[in-house]
Amino acid sequence: MRNMEDGLRTAIEELAAEAPLARDLTTVARTQGRRLRRRRRAMVGACALALVMAVAAPYAVLRDTRSAPEPPAQKPTTVPGNWWESPYQLPGGAIVTTVSSTSIDEPATLDEGDVVLDRSTGRYRVMDGNYGAATAAPVGDYVMALAATDASVLIFDGKGDEYDHIRTDSMMTPQWSPDGSRLLITTRKGYVLYTVATRQVLTQATPEAHRDCPQICFFTWLPNGREIAIGLRDPATKRKFGKPDKLQGIRIYAPETGEPVRTIPVPGVPIDEGAWSPDGRTVLAYDGSRSSYFSEETYLFDVVTGTKIATVTEGLDGLPQFLPNGQIIVFGTPRKLDTRIHDGTTGQVIGTITVPEAFTNRRVGVGLP
Amino acid sequence: MKQSLEDEFTAFVADRGQSLLRIAHALTGDRDAAQDLVQGALAKAYARWPRIHGDAEAYVRKIIYNDRVSAWRRPARRNEMTVADVPERAAHDRDVTDRIAIREALLKLPARQRAVLVMRYLEDRSVEETAEMLGCSPGTVASQASRALVKLRDLVGGRVASLGGAR
Question: How many Å lie between the alpha carbon of B23 and the closest alpha carbon of chain A?
Protein backbone atom coordinates (compact mmCIF):
# COMPACT_ATOMS: atom_id res chain seq x y z
CA MET A 1 0.00 0.00 0.00
CA ARG A 2 2.76 2.38 0.91
CA ASN A 3 4.45 1.83 -2.47
CA MET A 4 1.29 2.67 -4.25
CA GLU A 5 0.72 5.80 -2.20
CA ASP A 6 4.29 6.94 -2.77
CA GLY A 7 3.98 6.32 -6.50
CA LEU A 8 0.67 8.10 -6.59
CA ARG A 9 1.99 11.09 -4.72
CA THR A 10 4.96 11.35 -7.08
CA ALA A 11 2.74 11.02 -10.15
CA ILE A 12 0.44 13.79 -8.94
CA GLU A 13 3.34 16.05 -8.03
CA GLU A 14 4.87 15.49 -11.45
CA LEU A 15 1.61 16.36 -13.13
CA ALA A 16 1.33 19.53 -11.06
CA ALA A 17 4.91 20.48 -11.89
CA GLU A 18 4.12 20.33 -15.60
CA ALA A 19 1.53 23.10 -15.31
CA PRO A 20 1.92 25.91 -17.82
CA LEU A 21 3.43 29.16 -16.62
CA ALA A 22 0.93 31.74 -15.45
CA ARG A 23 0.76 34.43 -18.11
CA ASP A 24 -1.89 37.09 -18.60
CA LEU A 25 -4.17 35.48 -16.07
CA THR A 26 -5.13 38.85 -14.61
CA THR A 27 -6.08 40.52 -17.87
CA VAL A 28 -8.24 37.68 -19.12
CA ALA A 29 -9.86 37.17 -15.71
CA ARG A 30 -10.75 40.86 -15.54
CA THR A 31 -12.34 40.83 -18.99
CA GLN A 32 -14.34 37.67 -18.30
CA GLY A 33 -15.19 38.80 -14.78
CA ARG A 34 -16.61 42.13 -15.97
CA ARG A 35 -18.71 40.25 -18.52
CA LEU A 36 -20.01 37.97 -15.77
CA ARG A 37 -20.89 40.93 -13.60
CA ARG A 38 -22.79 42.63 -16.42
CA ARG A 39 -24.69 39.42 -17.13
CA ARG A 40 -25.59 39.04 -13.48
CA ARG A 41 -26.87 42.62 -13.28
CA ALA A 42 -28.91 42.08 -16.44
CA MET A 43 -30.46 38.98 -14.91
CA VAL A 44 -31.32 40.83 -11.70
CA GLY A 45 -32.94 43.55 -13.83
CA ALA A 46 -34.91 40.98 -15.79
CA CYS A 47 -36.12 39.30 -12.59
CA ALA A 48 -37.19 42.66 -11.16
CA LEU A 49 -39.09 43.43 -14.36
CA ALA A 50 -40.79 40.03 -14.27
CA LEU A 51 -41.84 40.68 -10.69
CA VAL A 52 -43.36 44.05 -11.61
CA MET A 53 -45.20 42.45 -14.55
CA ALA A 54 -46.57 39.71 -12.33
CA VAL A 55 -47.90 42.18 -9.78
CA ALA A 56 -49.40 44.42 -12.43
CA ALA A 57 -50.99 41.64 -14.50
CA PRO A 58 -54.79 41.14 -14.43
CA TYR A 59 -56.04 38.42 -12.12
CA ALA A 60 -57.20 36.28 -15.05
CA VAL A 61 -53.68 36.12 -16.41
CA LEU A 62 -52.33 35.28 -12.99
CA ARG A 63 -54.90 32.51 -12.64
CA ASP A 64 -53.84 31.05 -15.98
CA THR A 65 -50.28 31.02 -14.79
CA ARG A 66 -51.30 29.27 -11.62
CA SER A 67 -53.06 26.52 -13.52
CA ALA A 68 -50.01 25.83 -15.69
CA PRO A 69 -48.25 22.52 -15.00
CA GLU A 70 -45.74 22.83 -12.18
CA PRO A 71 -42.10 22.03 -12.80
CA PRO A 72 -40.90 18.68 -11.45
CA ALA A 73 -40.68 18.82 -7.66
CA GLN A 74 -37.43 18.01 -5.89
CA LYS A 75 -38.80 15.01 -4.07
CA PRO A 76 -38.60 11.23 -4.23
CA THR A 77 -40.45 9.39 -6.98
CA THR A 78 -41.83 5.87 -6.87
CA VAL A 79 -39.87 3.20 -8.72
CA PRO A 80 -41.37 -0.16 -9.62
CA GLY A 81 -39.26 -3.28 -9.39
CA ASN A 82 -38.29 -6.23 -7.24
CA TRP A 83 -36.24 -5.78 -4.08
CA TRP A 84 -37.49 -2.24 -3.82
CA GLU A 85 -41.13 -3.32 -3.70
CA SER A 86 -41.08 -4.12 0.01
CA PRO A 87 -38.83 -3.35 3.02
CA TYR A 88 -35.67 -5.40 2.59
CA GLN A 89 -35.14 -7.62 5.62
CA LEU A 90 -31.75 -8.00 7.29
CA PRO A 91 -30.70 -10.24 10.16
CA GLY A 92 -32.04 -9.42 13.58
CA GLY A 93 -35.28 -7.89 12.33
CA ALA A 94 -33.56 -4.88 10.75
CA ILE A 95 -34.56 -3.41 7.41
CA VAL A 96 -32.76 -1.40 4.76
CA THR A 97 -33.84 2.24 4.92
CA THR A 98 -31.46 3.82 2.43
CA VAL A 99 -29.20 2.85 -0.44
CA SER A 100 -26.89 5.73 -1.21
CA SER A 101 -25.98 7.11 -4.59
CA THR A 102 -22.67 5.96 -5.96
CA SER A 103 -21.51 9.57 -6.03
CA ILE A 104 -23.14 12.96 -6.30
CA ASP A 105 -22.35 12.96 -10.02
CA GLU A 106 -24.57 10.01 -10.67
CA PRO A 107 -28.09 10.32 -12.09
CA ALA A 108 -31.21 9.64 -10.07
CA THR A 109 -31.74 6.00 -10.95
CA LEU A 110 -32.34 2.98 -8.80
CA ASP A 111 -28.88 1.63 -9.51
CA GLU A 112 -27.01 4.86 -8.99
CA GLY A 113 -29.19 7.41 -7.19
CA ASP A 114 -30.17 7.87 -3.56
CA VAL A 115 -32.85 5.28 -2.79
CA VAL A 116 -34.94 5.56 0.38
CA LEU A 117 -37.69 3.53 1.96
CA ASP A 118 -41.13 5.11 1.83
CA ARG A 119 -42.68 3.69 4.96
CA SER A 120 -46.18 4.73 3.95
CA THR A 121 -46.11 2.44 0.90
CA GLY A 122 -43.45 -0.02 2.03
CA ARG A 123 -41.60 0.55 -1.24
CA TYR A 124 -38.32 2.21 -2.07
CA ARG A 125 -38.09 5.31 -4.19
CA VAL A 126 -35.31 7.27 -5.81
CA MET A 127 -34.61 10.76 -4.57
CA ASP A 128 -35.01 13.16 -7.42
CA GLY A 129 -31.90 15.30 -7.46
CA ASN A 130 -28.24 15.09 -6.62
CA TYR A 131 -27.31 15.23 -2.97
CA GLY A 132 -24.07 15.04 -1.07
CA ALA A 133 -25.72 12.37 1.03
CA ALA A 134 -29.25 11.22 1.83
CA THR A 135 -30.37 8.96 4.65
CA ALA A 136 -33.71 7.91 6.00
CA ALA A 137 -34.18 7.98 9.75
CA PRO A 138 -33.63 4.56 11.33
CA VAL A 139 -37.05 4.90 12.89
CA GLY A 140 -39.89 7.05 11.58
CA ASP A 141 -40.72 8.61 8.26
CA TYR A 142 -38.23 11.39 7.73
CA VAL A 143 -35.40 11.56 5.23
CA MET A 144 -32.41 13.86 5.41
CA ALA A 145 -30.58 15.05 2.28
CA LEU A 146 -27.42 17.08 2.19
CA ALA A 147 -27.58 19.62 -0.62
CA ALA A 148 -24.83 19.13 -3.17
CA THR A 149 -24.43 22.79 -3.95
CA ASP A 150 -24.45 24.58 -0.63
CA ALA A 151 -24.20 23.91 3.07
CA SER A 152 -27.83 23.13 3.70
CA VAL A 153 -29.76 20.11 4.86
CA LEU A 154 -33.17 19.27 3.49
CA ILE A 155 -35.68 17.28 5.52
CA PHE A 156 -38.38 15.38 3.66
CA ASP A 157 -41.48 13.98 5.31
CA GLY A 158 -43.05 10.59 4.77
CA LYS A 159 -44.76 11.71 1.57
CA GLY A 160 -41.51 12.94 0.11
CA ASP A 161 -42.46 16.58 0.51
CA GLU A 162 -39.90 19.05 1.79
CA TYR A 163 -40.55 19.51 5.49
CA ASP A 164 -37.74 21.83 6.47
CA HIS A 165 -34.52 23.36 5.27
CA ILE A 166 -31.60 23.91 7.65
CA ARG A 167 -28.69 26.14 6.77
CA THR A 168 -25.35 25.44 8.41
CA ASP A 169 -21.74 26.29 7.71
CA SER A 170 -20.84 22.64 7.22
CA MET A 171 -21.22 19.98 4.60
CA MET A 172 -20.63 17.09 6.95
CA THR A 173 -23.18 14.31 6.80
CA PRO A 174 -25.81 14.79 9.50
CA GLN A 175 -26.32 11.85 11.84
CA TRP A 176 -29.76 10.61 12.80
CA SER A 177 -30.33 9.94 16.46
CA PRO A 178 -31.11 6.27 17.15
CA ASP A 179 -34.83 7.04 17.57
CA GLY A 180 -34.96 9.15 14.41
CA SER A 181 -36.20 12.22 16.24
CA ARG A 182 -33.11 14.43 15.96
CA LEU A 183 -30.29 15.24 13.59
CA LEU A 184 -26.75 16.04 14.60
CA ILE A 185 -24.71 18.15 12.20
CA THR A 186 -21.04 18.78 12.90
CA THR A 187 -20.17 22.34 11.93
CA ARG A 188 -16.91 24.26 11.69
CA LYS A 189 -17.09 25.41 15.30
CA GLY A 190 -19.36 22.91 16.99
CA TYR A 191 -22.59 21.27 15.97
CA VAL A 192 -26.22 21.87 15.19
CA LEU A 193 -28.89 19.81 16.87
CA TYR A 194 -32.16 19.70 14.98
CA THR A 195 -35.34 18.35 16.51
CA VAL A 196 -37.64 17.15 13.75
CA ALA A 197 -40.99 17.35 15.55
CA THR A 198 -40.54 20.95 16.68
CA ARG A 199 -38.21 22.14 13.91
CA GLN A 200 -36.03 23.52 16.67
CA VAL A 201 -32.43 24.28 15.70
CA LEU A 202 -29.93 24.41 18.54
CA THR A 203 -26.44 25.63 17.67
CA GLN A 204 -23.60 24.81 20.03
CA ALA A 205 -19.99 25.92 19.84
CA THR A 206 -17.46 23.38 21.08
CA PRO A 207 -14.09 25.05 20.52
CA GLU A 208 -12.18 22.57 22.69
CA ALA A 209 -13.68 19.61 20.82
CA HIS A 210 -12.59 20.99 17.47
CA ARG A 211 -9.20 22.04 18.78
CA ASP A 212 -8.49 18.61 20.20
CA CYS A 213 -10.05 16.37 17.58
CA PRO A 214 -8.00 14.46 15.02
CA GLN A 215 -8.15 14.82 11.25
CA ILE A 216 -11.34 12.82 11.13
CA CYS A 217 -13.44 15.16 13.19
CA PHE A 218 -17.17 14.76 13.56
CA PHE A 219 -19.75 13.93 16.20
CA THR A 220 -21.72 10.70 16.39
CA TRP A 221 -24.65 9.75 18.60
CA LEU A 222 -24.17 7.30 21.38
CA PRO A 223 -26.72 4.47 21.29
CA ASN A 224 -28.59 5.98 24.26
CA GLY A 225 -29.57 8.94 22.05
CA ARG A 226 -28.80 11.31 24.92
CA GLU A 227 -25.08 11.83 24.38
CA ILE A 228 -22.76 12.52 21.48
CA ALA A 229 -19.11 11.64 20.91
CA ILE A 230 -16.11 12.95 19.05
CA GLY A 231 -12.53 11.69 18.67
CA LEU A 232 -9.83 13.13 20.90
CA ARG A 233 -6.19 13.31 19.86
CA ASP A 234 -3.30 13.41 22.26
CA PRO A 235 -2.81 17.16 22.74
CA ALA A 236 0.71 16.60 24.09
CA THR A 237 1.92 15.11 20.81
CA LYS A 238 3.10 17.56 18.22
CA ARG A 239 1.10 17.33 15.01
CA LYS A 240 2.92 16.68 11.77
CA PHE A 241 1.59 17.97 8.49
CA GLY A 242 0.01 15.18 6.49
CA LYS A 243 0.62 12.59 9.23
CA PRO A 244 -2.11 10.87 11.23
CA ASP A 245 -2.72 12.17 14.73
CA LYS A 246 -2.00 10.19 17.85
CA LEU A 247 -5.37 9.39 19.37
CA GLN A 248 -6.10 9.49 23.06
CA GLY A 249 -9.77 8.70 23.51
CA ILE A 250 -13.32 9.60 22.66
CA ARG A 251 -14.86 12.56 24.39
CA ILE A 252 -18.54 12.46 25.24
CA TYR A 253 -20.75 15.55 25.26
CA ALA A 254 -24.23 16.43 26.45
CA PRO A 255 -25.87 17.61 23.23
CA GLU A 256 -28.25 20.08 24.84
CA THR A 257 -25.53 22.01 26.68
CA GLY A 258 -22.45 21.37 24.56
CA GLU A 259 -20.54 20.45 27.72
CA PRO A 260 -18.10 17.52 27.86
CA VAL A 261 -19.27 14.95 30.37
CA ARG A 262 -16.57 12.27 30.24
CA THR A 263 -13.87 10.68 28.13
CA ILE A 264 -13.68 7.02 27.27
CA PRO A 265 -10.29 5.41 26.67
CA VAL A 266 -10.83 4.20 23.10
CA PRO A 267 -7.94 5.46 20.92
CA GLY A 268 -10.07 5.69 17.80
CA VAL A 269 -12.63 7.71 15.90
CA PRO A 270 -16.19 6.33 15.69
CA ILE A 271 -16.70 5.67 12.02
CA ASP A 272 -20.21 6.94 11.32
CA GLU A 273 -23.86 6.37 12.13
CA GLY A 274 -24.07 2.76 13.26
CA ALA A 275 -20.64 2.84 14.90
CA TRP A 276 -21.86 1.98 18.39
CA SER A 277 -23.24 -1.36 19.52
CA PRO A 278 -26.83 -1.04 20.78
CA ASP A 279 -25.69 -1.82 24.33
CA GLY A 280 -22.85 0.69 24.11
CA ARG A 281 -20.17 -1.82 25.06
CA THR A 282 -18.26 -1.84 21.78
CA VAL A 283 -17.60 0.70 19.08
CA LEU A 284 -16.41 0.54 15.48
CA ALA A 285 -13.65 3.08 15.02
CA TYR A 286 -10.76 4.14 12.87
CA ASP A 287 -7.34 4.06 14.37
CA GLY A 288 -5.99 7.15 12.68
CA SER A 289 -2.56 6.68 14.21
CA ARG A 290 -1.95 3.44 12.40
CA SER A 291 -2.28 4.17 8.71
CA SER A 292 -3.45 6.52 6.04
CA TYR A 293 -7.07 7.44 6.64
CA PHE A 294 -7.84 6.94 2.97
CA SER A 295 -7.08 3.25 3.19
CA GLU A 296 -8.39 2.92 6.66
CA GLU A 297 -9.04 -0.30 8.46
CA THR A 298 -11.86 -0.26 10.97
CA TYR A 299 -11.57 -1.90 14.34
CA LEU A 300 -13.85 -3.06 17.09
CA PHE A 301 -12.94 -1.55 20.45
CA ASP A 302 -14.07 -2.35 23.95
CA VAL A 303 -15.59 0.87 25.25
CA VAL A 304 -14.79 0.25 28.90
CA THR A 305 -11.14 -0.77 28.58
CA GLY A 306 -10.27 0.85 25.25
CA THR A 307 -8.85 -2.48 24.07
CA LYS A 308 -8.76 -3.17 20.36
CA ILE A 309 -10.76 -6.40 20.02
CA ALA A 310 -10.53 -7.12 16.29
CA THR A 311 -9.96 -5.75 12.83
CA VAL A 312 -13.38 -5.71 11.22
CA THR A 313 -12.68 -4.29 7.78
CA GLU A 314 -9.76 -3.41 5.60
CA GLY A 315 -9.51 -0.59 3.09
CA LEU A 316 -11.25 -2.41 0.26
CA ASP A 317 -14.23 -3.45 2.36
CA GLY A 318 -17.44 -1.54 2.80
CA LEU A 319 -18.05 0.44 5.94
CA PRO A 320 -19.28 -1.75 8.82
CA GLN A 321 -22.26 -0.85 10.97
CA PHE A 322 -24.11 -2.36 13.87
CA LEU A 323 -27.47 -4.00 13.42
CA PRO A 324 -30.13 -3.51 16.08
CA ASN A 325 -29.51 -7.08 17.34
CA GLY A 326 -25.88 -6.29 18.18
CA GLN A 327 -24.31 -7.99 15.16
CA ILE A 328 -22.21 -6.09 12.65
CA ILE A 329 -22.95 -6.01 8.93
CA VAL A 330 -20.43 -5.19 6.21
CA PHE A 331 -21.97 -4.84 2.78
CA GLY A 332 -20.01 -6.08 -0.21
CA THR A 333 -17.84 -4.12 -2.58
CA PRO A 334 -16.72 -4.99 -6.13
CA ARG A 335 -13.56 -6.44 -4.59
CA LYS A 336 -15.27 -8.31 -1.78
CA LEU A 337 -18.70 -9.25 -2.97
CA ASP A 338 -19.84 -11.12 0.10
CA THR A 339 -21.90 -9.24 2.63
CA ARG A 340 -20.57 -10.37 5.98
CA ILE A 341 -22.10 -10.62 9.41
CA HIS A 342 -19.72 -10.25 12.35
CA ASP A 343 -20.26 -10.97 15.99
CA GLY A 344 -20.65 -7.63 17.73
CA THR A 345 -18.59 -8.56 20.79
CA THR A 346 -15.69 -10.46 19.22
CA GLY A 347 -15.65 -8.91 15.75
CA GLN A 348 -15.33 -12.36 14.20
CA VAL A 349 -17.15 -13.25 10.98
CA ILE A 350 -20.09 -15.51 11.74
CA GLY A 351 -21.52 -15.78 8.24
CA THR A 352 -22.32 -14.20 4.92
CA ILE A 353 -25.64 -13.27 3.40
CA THR A 354 -26.82 -12.55 -0.12
CA VAL A 355 -28.15 -9.09 -0.82
CA PRO A 356 -29.24 -7.43 -4.06
CA GLU A 357 -26.39 -6.56 -6.38
CA ALA A 358 -27.59 -2.97 -6.29
CA PHE A 359 -26.30 -2.69 -2.70
CA THR A 360 -22.73 -3.39 -3.78
CA ASN A 361 -20.33 -0.52 -3.24
CA ARG A 362 -23.06 1.72 -1.85
CA ARG A 363 -23.75 2.94 1.63
CA VAL A 364 -26.74 1.00 2.93
CA GLY A 365 -28.70 2.56 5.79
CA VAL A 366 -30.24 0.28 8.36
CA GLY A 367 -33.25 0.79 10.61
CA LEU A 368 -36.19 -0.85 12.31
CA PRO A 369 -39.57 -1.61 10.70
CA MET B 1 -14.26 48.35 -8.63
CA LYS B 2 -12.10 50.58 -6.45
CA GLN B 3 -8.48 50.86 -7.43
CA SER B 4 -7.34 49.37 -4.14
CA LEU B 5 -9.43 46.27 -4.80
CA GLU B 6 -8.15 46.08 -8.38
CA ASP B 7 -4.60 46.19 -7.06
CA GLU B 8 -5.43 43.53 -4.53
CA PHE B 9 -6.81 41.26 -7.25
CA THR B 10 -3.70 41.78 -9.38
CA ALA B 11 -1.48 40.95 -6.44
CA PHE B 12 -3.53 37.86 -5.61
CA VAL B 13 -3.23 36.48 -9.14
CA ALA B 14 0.48 37.24 -9.27
CA ASP B 15 1.02 35.52 -5.95
CA ARG B 16 -1.27 32.51 -6.28
CA GLY B 17 -1.75 32.04 -10.03
CA GLN B 18 1.00 29.47 -10.49
CA SER B 19 -0.05 27.46 -7.48
CA LEU B 20 -3.64 27.36 -8.79
CA LEU B 21 -2.39 26.24 -12.19
CA ARG B 22 -0.51 23.38 -10.54
CA ILE B 23 -3.71 22.14 -8.94
CA ALA B 24 -5.63 22.56 -12.19
CA HIS B 25 -3.02 20.67 -14.17
CA ALA B 26 -3.00 17.83 -11.69
CA LEU B 27 -6.79 17.68 -12.04
CA THR B 28 -6.96 17.85 -15.82
CA GLY B 29 -3.62 16.55 -17.10
CA ASP B 30 -3.94 19.06 -19.91
CA ARG B 31 -2.27 22.44 -20.15
CA ASP B 32 -5.05 24.23 -22.02
CA ALA B 33 -7.76 22.75 -19.83
CA ALA B 34 -5.82 23.77 -16.73
CA GLN B 35 -5.46 27.30 -18.01
CA ASP B 36 -9.19 27.48 -18.85
CA LEU B 37 -10.11 26.15 -15.44
CA VAL B 38 -8.02 28.71 -13.56
CA GLN B 39 -9.03 31.50 -15.89
CA GLY B 40 -12.72 30.76 -15.36
CA ALA B 41 -12.34 30.56 -11.59
CA LEU B 42 -10.43 33.84 -11.46
CA ALA B 43 -13.09 35.51 -13.63
CA LYS B 44 -15.78 34.42 -11.17
CA ALA B 45 -13.62 35.63 -8.31
CA TYR B 46 -13.11 39.00 -9.99
CA ALA B 47 -16.87 39.39 -10.51
CA ARG B 48 -17.37 38.94 -6.76
CA TRP B 49 -14.08 40.32 -5.54
CA PRO B 50 -15.46 42.99 -3.17
CA ARG B 51 -17.32 40.26 -1.31
CA ILE B 52 -14.84 37.42 -1.36
CA HIS B 53 -11.44 39.08 -1.33
CA GLY B 54 -10.95 38.27 2.34
CA ASP B 55 -10.90 34.56 1.55
CA ALA B 56 -10.16 34.61 -2.14
CA GLU B 57 -7.91 31.59 -2.33
CA ALA B 58 -10.42 29.24 -0.73
CA TYR B 59 -13.11 30.61 -3.03
CA VAL B 60 -11.03 30.16 -6.19
CA ARG B 61 -9.84 26.70 -5.24
CA LYS B 62 -13.39 25.63 -4.54
CA ILE B 63 -14.48 26.84 -7.98
CA ILE B 64 -11.56 25.06 -9.64
CA TYR B 65 -12.43 21.73 -8.01
CA ASN B 66 -16.15 22.03 -8.53
CA ASP B 67 -15.92 23.28 -12.10
CA ARG B 68 -13.65 20.39 -12.91
CA VAL B 69 -15.98 17.87 -11.34
CA SER B 70 -19.00 19.45 -13.09
CA ALA B 71 -17.18 19.55 -16.41
CA TRP B 72 -16.78 15.81 -16.20
CA ARG B 73 -20.51 15.40 -16.74
CA ARG B 74 -20.15 16.97 -20.19
CA PRO B 75 -18.16 14.47 -22.26
CA ALA B 76 -17.18 17.04 -24.85
CA ARG B 77 -15.15 18.85 -22.23
CA ARG B 78 -13.22 15.89 -20.95
CA ASN B 79 -9.59 16.64 -21.23
CA GLU B 80 -7.65 13.47 -21.00
CA MET B 81 -3.97 13.22 -21.55
CA THR B 82 -3.37 10.43 -24.01
CA VAL B 83 -0.65 7.89 -23.52
CA ALA B 84 1.28 9.59 -26.27
CA ASP B 85 1.46 12.77 -24.21
CA VAL B 86 3.28 11.07 -21.37
CA PRO B 87 6.96 11.90 -21.58
CA GLU B 88 9.00 8.98 -22.74
CA ARG B 89 11.33 7.49 -20.19
CA ALA B 90 13.91 4.77 -20.19
CA ALA B 91 12.02 1.49 -20.12
CA HIS B 92 14.56 -0.14 -17.83
CA ASP B 93 13.95 2.30 -15.05
CA ARG B 94 11.41 0.38 -13.03
CA ASP B 95 10.36 3.24 -10.75
CA VAL B 96 9.80 5.56 -13.66
CA THR B 97 7.84 2.93 -15.57
CA ASP B 98 5.69 2.32 -12.52
CA ARG B 99 5.06 6.01 -12.06
CA ILE B 100 4.05 6.43 -15.67
CA ALA B 101 1.65 3.54 -15.33
CA ILE B 102 0.16 5.13 -12.22
CA ARG B 103 -0.06 8.47 -13.96
CA GLU B 104 -1.89 7.00 -16.94
CA ALA B 105 -4.28 5.26 -14.59
CA LEU B 106 -4.77 8.43 -12.57
CA LEU B 107 -5.84 10.30 -15.68
CA LYS B 108 -8.46 7.66 -16.36
CA LEU B 109 -10.18 8.11 -13.01
CA PRO B 110 -13.49 9.96 -12.75
CA ALA B 111 -13.00 13.63 -11.96
CA ARG B 112 -14.31 13.43 -8.41
CA GLN B 113 -12.02 10.58 -7.49
CA ARG B 114 -9.05 12.36 -9.02
CA ALA B 115 -10.01 15.53 -7.18
CA VAL B 116 -10.02 13.65 -3.89
CA LEU B 117 -6.56 12.23 -4.61
CA VAL B 118 -5.18 15.62 -5.64
CA MET B 119 -6.44 17.19 -2.43
CA ARG B 120 -4.92 14.37 -0.43
CA TYR B 121 -1.58 13.90 -2.13
CA LEU B 122 -0.81 17.30 -3.61
CA GLU B 123 -2.41 19.56 -1.04
CA ASP B 124 -2.24 17.35 2.05
CA ARG B 125 -5.82 18.22 2.95
CA SER B 126 -7.85 16.37 5.55
CA VAL B 127 -10.99 14.41 4.80
CA GLU B 128 -13.09 17.22 6.25
CA GLU B 129 -11.38 19.90 4.20
CA THR B 130 -11.78 17.78 1.09
CA ALA B 131 -15.44 17.23 1.87
CA GLU B 132 -16.06 20.91 2.32
CA MET B 133 -14.21 21.75 -0.85
CA LEU B 134 -16.12 19.24 -2.95
CA GLY B 135 -19.44 19.83 -1.26
CA CYS B 136 -19.95 16.29 -0.06
CA SER B 137 -19.73 14.34 3.16
CA PRO B 138 -16.53 12.99 4.71
CA GLY B 139 -17.95 9.52 4.15
CA THR B 140 -18.27 10.25 0.45
CA VAL B 141 -14.68 11.48 0.36
CA ALA B 142 -13.41 8.36 2.06
CA SER B 143 -15.40 6.08 -0.21
CA GLN B 144 -14.32 7.98 -3.32
CA ALA B 145 -10.71 7.69 -2.23
CA SER B 146 -11.09 4.03 -1.50
CA ARG B 147 -12.73 3.41 -4.87
CA ALA B 148 -10.04 5.43 -6.59
CA LEU B 149 -7.32 3.29 -5.07
CA VAL B 150 -9.16 0.11 -6.01
CA LYS B 151 -9.57 1.37 -9.56
CA LEU B 152 -5.93 2.40 -9.74
CA ARG B 153 -4.95 -1.08 -8.67
CA ASP B 154 -7.22 -2.53 -11.34
CA LEU B 155 -5.74 -0.27 -13.97
CA VAL B 156 -2.08 -0.70 -13.15
CA GLY B 157 -2.04 -3.92 -11.16
CA GLY B 158 -0.73 -6.06 -13.97
CA ARG B 159 2.04 -3.67 -14.85
CA VAL B 160 3.25 -2.51 -11.47
CA ALA B 161 4.49 -5.33 -9.34
CA SER B 162 4.82 -3.25 -6.21
CA LEU B 163 1.10 -2.56 -6.04
CA GLY B 164 -0.08 -6.06 -5.43
CA GLY B 165 -0.99 -7.51 -2.08
CA ALA B 166 1.01 -5.19 0.07
CA ARG B 167 -1.62 -4.75 2.75
Answer: 6
